[in-house]
Design a protein that fits this description.
There is one protein chain. Strand 3 and strand 4 form a beta hairpin. The chain is an alpha/beta fold. The radius of gyration is 15 Å and the shape is globular. It is built from six helices and six strands. Helices cover about 35% and strands about 20% of the residues. The N and C termini lie far apart (about 30 Å). It has one domain: Ribonuclease H-like superfamily/Ribonuclease H (Nucleotidyltransferase, domain 5, 2-Layer Sandwich). Helix 3 packs parallel to helix 5.
């Protein structure tokens, strides 16, 4: 089951300084042709699949992100971190960083709308304020997303994890590879 939520552009929140990383999310449920042809339907948005991963042995968390541009190009990004406070929430840290990375990437690259597809429901709920952000990290995440959602339209689509969704699986694989290959969060540059 796919659940879509639209975030109002005027969501309050003024904070992101001090957040150690940016992040993104993962979700799916569409055929590649549906994803690549979304512009033909008149919706020039960025679609971002995100996922997070964690390794107790390596003491790292990571994210993977698959970005679908309106012109049909696909960009894959990943990163990792080892902040001790973030390690306590395991793969959720990667999920949050992935979602933040996707939204920040969309802003830097001039998009007016980003659809974040994720498999961990907290990503949407903390950003929308439907769940109370109780920890310092989830509070920082909610505040950062709130600020950015005042500047860009953000929608969330929830898809079941490990359900053989091609792009969710790709984001998951990127997150897993980032545990050993990632060296922090990649810089966000204008690419379009």
């Amino acid at each position: 089951m796919v659940v879509r939520r639209t975030v109002p552009r005027n969501v309050a929140g003024r904070w992101w300084r001090g957040v150690p990383h940016y992040g993104q999310w993962a979700v799916g449920g569409e055929d590649l042709d549906d994803v690549k042809n979304f512009e033909r339907a008149g919706d020039a948005r960025l679609v971002a699949y995100v996922d997070g991963s964690y390794s107790h042995e390596l003491q790292k968390y990571a994210f993977g992100c698959v970005l679908f541009l309106p012109d049909g190009r696909v960009i894959e990004k990943y990163g990792s971190g080892d902040n001790p406070d973030s390690l306590a929430i395991r793969n959720v840290a990667g999920e949050m960083i992935g979602a933040m990375f996707a939204v920040k990437w969309a802003l830097v690259n001039g998009f007016g709308h980003v659809e974040v597809r994720h498999d961990y429901t907290g990503i949407a709920h903390w950003a929308l304020g439907t769940w109370k952000a109780k920890t310092p990290l989830t509070q920082k995440y909610a505040q950062a997303m709130g600020e950015w959602m005042g500047r860009i339209r953000v929608t969330f689509t929830k898809v079941a994890a490990h359900s053989h969704d091609t792009y969710n699986d790709t984001a998951d694989a990127l997150a897993k590879s980032a545990l050993t290959q990632g060296a922090g969060v990649p810089p966000i540059r204008r690419e379009v």
